[in-house]
Fold this sequence. Notes:
Layout lengths: L21 E6 L3 H12 L4 E7 L3 H9 L5 E2 L3 H5 L6 E4 L6 H11 L3 E3 L7 H14 L4 E3 L7 H12 L5 E9 L9 H20 L3 E7 L15 E7 L4 E7 L7 E8 L2 E5 L6 E3 L5 E3 L5 H20 L9 H20 L3 E2 L7
Parallel strand pairs: 1-2, 1-4, 2-3, 4-5, 5-6, 7-10
Antiparallel strand pairs: 7-11, 8-9, 8-15, 9-10, 11-12, 13-14
Amino acid sequence: MAETSTAVESRPAAAVPAGAELRVAVLGVGVMGAFHVEGLSSRVRGARVTVVNDYAADRAEQVAASVPGARVEADPLAAIDAPDVDAVLIASPGPAHDEQVRACLARQLPVLCEKPLTTDIDSAYRIVQAEAELGRQLIQVGFMRRFDSEYVRLRQLVVSGELGNPLMLHCTHRNAGVPATFDSEMMIRDSVVHEVDVARFLLGEEIATVQVIKGAATRRAPEGFNDPMLVIFETESGRVVTDEIFVRTGVGYEVRTELVGELGSATIGLDHNVVRTGADGRWGGEITPGFIERFGAAYDRELQHWVNAARRGTIDGPGSWDGYAAVAVCEAGVEAVRTGERVTVTMGRRP
């Protein structure tokens, strides 16, 4: 498929006039895209969905019918180029992101792209370079944990110095279940990618190496799949990050993070997976059933920040470099799964 031009002479979109709503095209309306359509239509101020696109025509029609004034556009590139679109939200499958993001750059439209930015290092880096040539930040990547109140507070503890120099980060990421085709490499690209961005966000530096310890697999995992795994990152300054990834627990959605510093430690995620002792001496609690229940508020906060910035023709959140860095680390992680070796993360120069 031919690359979409990102030349500046293509038709740029101006900032949205004061008082007008941001008109958004949503590409891909599966679980995540449909959730974003609902958020933009009912919980986020200053925007409305005008165009819906999905490779499944019936699904696109169903979602569009739930939004007054929205219409279906069968071609995603035509949706991006539509005159009633000021910004684009991409929730389509990862292999489609490269062409779609580049088309947004060609029209100079702000875009919120769900991870991954693209599915390989080279295309992700070309997007970083193309955006830099425009001289404007237009690409925001959907790492919603940066908008979660607990992660924000943990980052503040780091910046304030209350915990002293951060030394280690321990992460836990568990799902009740995943499709049978969700293999060990997908665990890195689709799940561990969130901890990759969390580590970069909290520690403020790049990840230098990745190692994966496979260990014993759960009986729920198909033959040849490694689940759970322990992923170990080392940052440029030598800080260590551990991530237990276990996607077939059969229990619920558990995400916790502990930051260990020279002056103390802090853990987040406990309020959502709390264990309590009752007066009768019995232990009990509730585990969050899914990612939307755990991070729904963060998704909406992410959307609101993006809408507010997109109305000005820019972004407010993790950008294309953050998306590229995550792709690079995950690529090293996949190699670590395949080889069992400690793999160095290879990245280009930041424009």
